[in-house]
Amino acid sequence: MKILNLKICFLLLLIFLTVNLVYAQEHPLPGAKISFSETMWSFGYVPKTGTVSHTYMIKNVGTDTLIIVKVRPDCGCTTTPLTQKRLSPNESAEMKIVFDPRKVVTTEAVKKLQITSNDPNNPLSEVQFTAKIGLNNSLVKLTPAEIDFDTTAVGAEGSRTLTIENISKERLSLNVIEEPREYVDVSLGNKILKPGESIQLVAKLKKGVAAGSFHTSLTLDFEGSKIARVSIPIFGEIITP
């Protein structure tokens, strides 16, 4: 009799939990809910000459206003300006990270950022990024390793060329992963590189860039039997004539 009663109690408990799970899925609790475009980003190979950047998208997938209280990097090598700190339901905002490899002593970095918000179920969120600093990859050589626009007058045309050489023994395909769209237009003559072949990457300043210094980057993937990701620092200063 005791065994039968235990079986009945267990069955009732299972039914209760199943009903509550179905109800919770169909009737989510009110509240803010934070979501990220990705929680892990790789800069790949970066030179130790300038900053690189990446933009995470933060979205409120909850039913109440999301308030981002604080974003705290774990290193002084990273800054994280936000476009806004209050997000309505289904609204998104950019969280741009700017990483300065010159402030890191190791050649391989794994860095974290902690985001404090009013998400009741996830008040402390975390995203990460990685970088290989000052190291050479086995697939391509970039000359120069960064794009420096130096000093350019407001409204003046600025253009820089970077050479990409396939130093491997196989055919490589090139993919643009993240572009510096707010400052620079980038064009490539070809996205397929044969062994020993070189192509030119041309970066042109966009018209209407405001006066002041800027720091951004371009991230490319080179794929053969292996993949090499490379992030190229792009920087300069726009001055008023």
Characteristics:
mainly beta, 1 helix, 241 residues, Immunoglobulin-like, 2 domains, 5-stranded mixed β-sheet, 18 strands
Number of strands: 18
Helical residue percent band: 10-25%
Low-confidence stretches: 19-28
Which structural class should the secondary elements be placed in? mainly beta
**What is the strand content?**
over 45%
The major β-sheet equals: 5 strands, mixed
Strand order of the largest sheet: 2-9-8-4-6
Distance between the termini: 94 Å
User: How many discrete domains?
Assistant: 2
**CATH topological fold name of the largest domain:** Immunoglobulin-like
At CATH level 2, the architecture of the largest domain is: Sandwich
Radius of gyration: 24 Å
Order of helices and strands: HEEEEEEEEEEEEEEEEEE
Architecture overview:
With about 240 residues, this protein is mainly beta. It folds into 2 domains: about 100 residues, Immunoglobulin-like, CATH 2.60.40.10; about 100 residues, Immunoglobulin-like (Sandwich). Helix content is about 10%, strand content about 50%. The chain is built from 1 helix and 18 strands. Strands 2-9-8-4-6 form a 5-stranded mixed sheet, with no helix packed on it. The chain is globular. About 5% of the residues have low confidence.
Give the helices and strands, then pairings.
Elements: H1 2-26, E1 34-36, E2 40-46, E3 52-60, E4 66-73, E5 78-79, E6 86-87, E7 92-99, E8 108-117, E9 124-133, E10 140-143, E11 147-153, E12 159-166, E13 172-178, E14 184-188, E15 192-193, E16 198-205, E17 212-223, E18 227-239
Parallel strand pairs: 2-9, 11-18
Antiparallel strand pairs: 1-3, 3-7, 4-6, 4-8, 5-7, 8-9, 10-12, 12-16, 13-15, 13-17, 14-16, 17-18
